[in-house]
Write a structure and sequence with these properties.
The complex is a heterodimer.
Chain A: H1 11-32, H2 54-94, H3 100-109, H4 119-128, H5 135-159, H6 163-171, H7 176-187, H8 189-205, H9 208-213, H10 221-230, H11 236-268
Helix pairs in contact in A: 1-11, 2-5, 2-8, 2-10, 2-11, 5-8, 8-11, 10-11
Chain B: H1 5-36, H2 53-59, H3 62-93, H4 100-108, H5 115-125, H6 136-143, H7 160-185, H8 189-197, H9 202-230, H10 234-240, H11 249-259, H12 263-294
Helix pairs in contact in B: 1-12, 3-7, 3-9, 4-7, 5-10, 7-9, 9-12, 11-12
The chains are: A mainly alpha, B mainly alpha.
Chain lengths: 272, 295
């Protein structure tokens, strides 16, 4: 780029956009750290006088059970999805059975459907197999509807692994499963991170499945937070602190593993 | 391709997943389709044949018209806004300024949090209370002397749904920025250099060379954001609850099914939503698969 000093003006729009993106974060944190006495809708924008934790403590007391529920949901959901996605991706990239390329787009379509179109049968089905209301049913739901994206991510990755590597393993007498275990699996650790983060984030942030499939004692954080925000009894400052608590786990993942998070996002646009 | 022992083993390995999707996606869609052709109203399933009456009733339903109108307004503003903002940010960041990675991470962080969190925070930012009870962004505008910006947000008569597009753009524009930035980075500097040699101004280069090269990305982003927009649900619920002026098909489906026990109508809305998404996504999938096969 030849433009030199005149480029400093570019920081002006970037600065304005920074304010736009940070406003909600500012309001969440500044309100969260105010003492109960300072909280007033008319002084929403002033900074807290000190770091008070009453709001966070109050929100935590309210939301702790649902935070635990969310953890019980996302950990198994992410792990099972990643394992299945990896096996599917391996077969669909390297051991294509006749018709595999025809099936693949039908698998992918599953990640775009509006879940409203399967919600009624899903509820009926979960009731029939006695998984309605609890966390295991929700885990199963997230695993199944996560299959398209996890399969896609792994398939795209395994497709880039040279066939010679597989041939070499074959020459050494390794069969299909041994080749997976010894060659492909170790290579695809980064893809595992991508998929685990992706499934962790989408299960943590999901609202629709959770609100339809769980009963109140199994509510994950999104449902509990929305319920808290809709109630007239709980003050807005506690809601802000609660929103922050609900955002922390995925934000931490984003801050520390952002690179992998971005790769997951891009896979969702199909062109990995 | 031939059927060896190993491809058979492969097929057996993916069979459970394929079977699960066959049931949970295609089987359930067919099941919903069947419910939409029934008279199921009430807690106990009732598959009595009703033909297309649920569809014709829905098309003459005032509430459904509000939903369609809201979806159209929301989609145009949300998709248009996210594309425009994302492209602007990507072009700004493509100037290789220092601090680029900081800004990139900053613009993308809302993607990591849920629509519910976003909605809970924005419901206070976009609080429509007037006068002495004024708060949120309106209060900020008031303090900054920007009174002309004070408005009723999602409580604006007729156009409340437009306000919902603001937090949606806040959440998703980082995504379009990342898509565009990836595209911009794949355009070689030689191309720009050659255009400069020919005397093209920076603006002409963007207008005539770079933007046309980015059009496949615009198309992908429109489809991804478009299908998110058709499904919008949690964001509206978290900001405003379930209220008629801000109703969309996904909320109508939810309330009529699970609050009103009108299952056949709920299924009808679900199927119509599916069809609208399919019109967008199927050509896109076909196109992606074809270009992939050519590579």
């Amino acid at each position: 780029m030849i433009l030199s000093r005149s480029r400093y003006w570019l920081y002006l729009p970037l600065g304005l956009m920074t304010v736009f993106y940070l406003l909600p974060l500012y309001i969440m944190l500044s309100t969260g750290f105010k003492s109960f006495a300072e909280v007033d809708l008319q002084s929403m924008w002033t900074l807290p006088t000190g770091l008070h934790f009453e709001n966070f403590r109050e929100a935590y007391v309210q939301l702790a059970p649902s935070l635990v529920n969310s953890l019980r949901l996302v950990v198994p959901a992410a792990i099972i999805s990643a394992i299945l996605g990896s096996l599917n991706g391996y077969v669909l990239a390297k051991w294509k059975f006749p018709g595999a390329d025809i099936i693949f787009p039908f698998i992918l379509f599953g990640m775009f459907i509006p879940y409203q179109s399967i919600l009624i049968p899903l509820v009926q089905f979960m009731r029939a197999i006695d998984l309605y209301g609890g966390i295991p049913g929700l885990v199963l739901t997230h695993v199944i509807y996560g299959l398209p994206i996890t399969t896609l991510t792994f398939r795209n990755y395994y497709a880039t692994v040279p066939n010679e590597l597989i041939e070499a393993a074959r020459v050494d007498g390794a069969g299909m499963l041994r080749t997976y275990w010894n060659v492909l699996l170790p290579l695809s650790i980064p893809s595992f991170v991508v998929v685990l983060i992706w499934q962790f984030t989408s299960a943590w942030n999901d609202f629709l499945f959770a609100v339809v499939l769980t009963n109140p004692q199994n509510w994950p954080i999104t449902v509990a937070l929305n319920n808290m925000a809709g109630s007239q009894i709980i003050a807005w400052n506690v809601q802000m602190a609660g929103a922050f608590l609900a955002a922390v786990p995925t934000l931490l993942v984003y801050i520390f593993l952002g690179r992998y998070f971005l790769r997951g996002l891009m896979a969702g646009a199909l062109k990995g | 391709m031939r059927f060896t022992r190993e491809t058979a083993l492969g097929a057996a390995m993916v069979a459970p997943s394929i079977l699960a999707l066959l049931i949970f996606v295609y089987g359930f869609i067919a099941w919903s389709g069947r419910v939409s052709l029934s008279n199921w109203r009430g807690l106990t399933p009732n598959y009595e044949w009703a033909g297309f009456s649920n569809y014709t009733n829905l098309f003459s339903d005032q509430r459904f018209y509000i939903d369609v109108r809201n979806t159209v307004i929301f989609t145009v503003l949300f998709v248009g806004g996210s594309l425009l903002l994302g492209l602007t940010l990507a072009i700004l960041l493509d100037q290789r300024l220092s601090g680029e990675s900081f800004f990139r991470s900053l613009f993308l962080f809302p993607m990591a949090i849920s629509f519910i969190v976003t909605g809970v925070v924005w419901r206070w930012l976009m609080n429509p209370a007037p006068g002495s009870r004024m708060t949120g962004l309106n209060l900020l505008f008031d303090r900054l002397g920007l009174d002309f910006l004070i408005n009723q947000w999602h409580a604006t008569p007729q156009w409340g749904i437009a306000a919902i597009a603001i937090p949606a753009i806040w959440q998703m524009s980082g995504y379009t920025m990342a898509l565009y930035l990836g595209g911009l980075r794949s355009i070689s500097d030689d191309l720009r250099e050659a255009a400069r040699m020919d005397g093209a101004s920076e603006i002409q280069i963007y207008r005539h060379i770079i933007l046309p090269l980015l059009s496949p990305i615009t198309l992908s982003a429109m489809i991804i954001l478009g299908h998110i927009s058709l499904k919008v649900f949690d964001l509206i619920v978290a900001i405003a609850g379930k209220q008629l002026p801000l109703d969309v098909p996904a909320i109508y489906m939810w309330t009529t099914t699970f609050d009103g026990q009108f299952y056949s109508r709920g299924a009808t809305i679900g199927i119509l939503l599916l069809l609208s998404v399919a019109v967008l996504v199927i050509p896109y999938l076909a196109y992606t698969m074809r270009t992939e096969a050519e590579i």
